[in-house]
Amino acid sequence: MLTFVLPALLGCAASLANTVEADEAPGLRVHNATGGEVVCHVRVGTAGGAAAAADLLGPTEVLPPGALLELPPAALPDESTLDVRLEDCNGDRLLEHVAVPRGPGIRVVLRARPTRLRGPRAHVGPSD
């Protein structure tokens, strides 16, 4: 199994690293292992398309700390590599990883908010 590690903060212990990896379980599994971050948007898209991809949580669902989201394979684009992006309720990136090799599924573990990984909201529309 290939594992890609995205350090949460420069100089932090490896235990605070977020992981995105191919998974033997089919579909998408996202575990919010943070102590206080709420994930409001889960986006999975083809190369370069995660920021514009539809929110897999829907307009009213959130992934609170400690929760696990499991989605069926039909929820994922049918590509060999995918981009994954998690956002907070303000649309700021909590995690973004490109070219994740897709096994039968993808497993994402969010452990901490990267302080250097911030960006504009992914949706297009009137500003709030």
Largest sheet: 5 strands, mixed
Number of folding domains? Answer: 1
The radius of gyration over CA amounts to 14 Å
Q: What helical percentage do the residues reach?
A: under 10%
Top-tier CATH class: Mainly Beta
What is the averaged pLDDT score?
A: 79
Order of secondary-structure elements? EEEEEEEE
Share of β-strand residues? 35-45%
Give the uncertain stretches in residue-range form: 1-14, 117-128
| DSSP, total strands | 8
Question: What would the CATH topology be?
Answer: Immunoglobulin-like
For the termini, the CA-CA separation is: 42 Å
Number of helical segments with 4 or more residues: 0
What's the multimeric state? single chain
Please give the CATH architecture.
Sandwich
Outline type: globular
Strand order of the largest sheet: 1-2-8-3-5
Q: What structural class is derived from the secondary structure elements?
A: mainly beta
Descriptive overview:
The chain is mainly β and 128 residues long. It has one domain: Immunoglobulin-like (Sandwich). It is 0% helix and 37% strand. A hairpin with a 5-residue loop joins β6 and β7. It is globular.
Q: What's the helix and strand layout?
A:
Layout: E1 3-6, E2 18-23, E3 27-32, E4 41-45, E5 68-71, E6 81-87, E7 93-101, E8 105-110
Short description:
The protein has 128 residues and is mostly beta strands.
Question: How would you describe this structure in keywords?
Answer:
mainly beta; three-stranded antiparallel beta sheet; Immunoglobulin-like; globular; five-stranded mixed beta sheet; 128 residues
